[in-house]
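Researcher: Quick test of sequence recovery. Tokens follow.
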């Protein structure tokens, strides 16, 4: 009866597509506290470091932590089919989750949501309207300071949490495999 939520904090394109790890952790902890959610922390083999950062920043432990074990595409597909919601950056996991019917919260930064559009009614796209985005760069070209990575840092935890909770409310009572 507990909702199953996957967090997918990595992005193979580059760090400009990655919402901060501490914010993923805050969303996970809030979903555990507010909704009794079971959290899967997903990472491809190349993204285990960022998943470890999320796990370290969490106050609670995820139910499954792929920073500590290997995940492959087949396993990602099986997990997405069972998840109520997937919170992700603009990555391949977003497309897999949508194809398998999970609710999807996607945080966009350097890429244009219109270019990566999937027309999925159970997706909530979050992005900050900042002058330099979408830059389409793998690493933020802004110098260190308040403008650096602002496309991602301007997206707040409460925005992502609200979108995830909206999708969880819609998912209540839906059949899962």
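Model:
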């Amino acid at each position: 009866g507990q909702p199953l939520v996957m967090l997918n904090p990595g992005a193979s394109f580059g760090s400009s597509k990655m919402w901060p790890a501490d914010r993923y952790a805050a969303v996970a902890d809030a979903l555990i506290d507010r909704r009794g959610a079971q959290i899967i922390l997903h990472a491809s083999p190349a993204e285990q470091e960022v998943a470890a950062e999320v796990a370290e920043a969490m106050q609670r432990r995820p139910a499954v932590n792929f920073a500590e074990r290997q995940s492959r595409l087949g396993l990602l597909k099986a997990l997405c089919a069972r998840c109520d919601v997937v919170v992700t950056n603009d990555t391949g996991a977003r497309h897999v989750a949508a194809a398998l019917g999970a609710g999807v919260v996607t945080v966009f930064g350097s890429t244009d949501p219109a270019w990566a559009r999937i027309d999925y009614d159970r997706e909530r796209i979050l992005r900050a309207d900042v002058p330099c985005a979408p830059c389409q760069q793998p690493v933020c070209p802004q110098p260190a300071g308040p403008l650096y990575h602002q496309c991602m840092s301007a997206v707040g935890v409460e925005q992502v949490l609200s979108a995830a909770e909206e999708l969880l409310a819609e998912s209540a009572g839906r059949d899962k495999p």
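The chain has a mean pLDDT of 92.
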